[in-house]
Amino acid sequence: MNLLLHKRWNIRPDVERAIVHQQPIVALETAVVTHGLPFPTNLALAQKMEQVILEEKALPATIGVLDGKVQIGLNENQLAELADPKTEVQKISQRDFGIALVSGFNGGTTVGGTMVAASKAGIRIFATGGIGGVHREPAFDVSADLMALNSIPMIVVCSGAKSILNLSATIEVLESYGVPVIGYKTDEFPAFYAAESGLPVTTRVDSVKMIAKIAREQWRSGLRNAILVVQPPPQESALPAAEMETIIQAAIEDARNKNIFGAALTPYLLDRINQLSEGRSMFANLALLENNARLAAKISRAYYKSRDKMI
Ligand code: PSU
Ligand code: MN
């Protein structure tokens, strides 16, 4: 059995079995492991997300690139290798697959990159922290994550987009791309570290069963866009929006002064914000990642429970 039929694409046997038998499965990204968090927190977080998904009776499939091969479902050693600061790693989005596979790179896949890989294997549910979006500056820095959300049918569970971004522009692009933003038990688009952004979601839904139904009907309608499910960070970890704004503006100014742009910008800002907030932003980041993994597992179970599954 090989779902992928390509020597540079590997799938963990239990993941392949779960896909073939349409059992609940949740994809996880690794750019957050290689570029989003410091060692050893990155490894602990990745393991914790997997554990939470298992507790909720779904199977985690963490996706990354090792030695020029895409691994759908990293095993324990592979995950540790990617998280190890001694391993040379790239940040891999859609544009980077061909280059990474030919060059034998190791790398963490971004939201967009993970969606490409998960979708190729037939996985339909994915948990992450926050999606990339339209940056405040420089003009025209728009994350490839949005392009993936436009064209890949997948339920993506997150805590909105980081407030380092232009959130209202990000929401407008999601609308243009036909991506419904579903607030799970919230009316407001969360701002990642903070629960409030002042921006509305497309609709609020209070049950995972309803989310699974909406996805199914959207895709049955012939549409091939993602469904974005958002929930705020857990209350005890959320940071005040106004205080975060001051820190974010300082971090953006530092990036400007250091002339940091392109793929390096998001990792730089995350790191700088963590320094300026004295670790509190990272605490919120970890709490919401775990929370999102749990919700994604529940949605996955609801999605595969229904007898008339599709695509
Ligand atoms: N959100 C986080 N931490 C991260 C990222 C998002 O809390 O590390 C990563 C994701 O992998 C996302 C990427 O896909 O940043 C977006 O990068 P860019 O803005 O360059 O598209
Ligand atoms: Mn960018």
Polypeptide structure, described:
By secondary structure, this protein is of the alpha/beta class. The protein folds into 2 domains: 123 residues, 3-Layer(aba) Sandwich (Indigoidine synthase fold), CATH 3.40.1790.10; 183 residues, Indigoidine synthase fold. The chain is 45% helix and 14% strand. The protein has 12 helices and 11 strands. Strands 1, 2, 3, 4, 5, 6, 7, 8, 9, 10 and 11 form an 11-stranded mixed beta sheet that branches. Helix 3 packs parallel to helix 12, helix 6 runs parallel beside helix 7 and helix 9 crosses helix 12. The longest helix has 26 residues. The protein is globular and about 50 Å long. The chain starts with 8 loop residues before the first strand and ends in a 6-residue tail after the last helix. Bound molecules: pseudouridine-5'-monophosphate and manganese (II) ion. Manganese (II) ion binds next to loops.
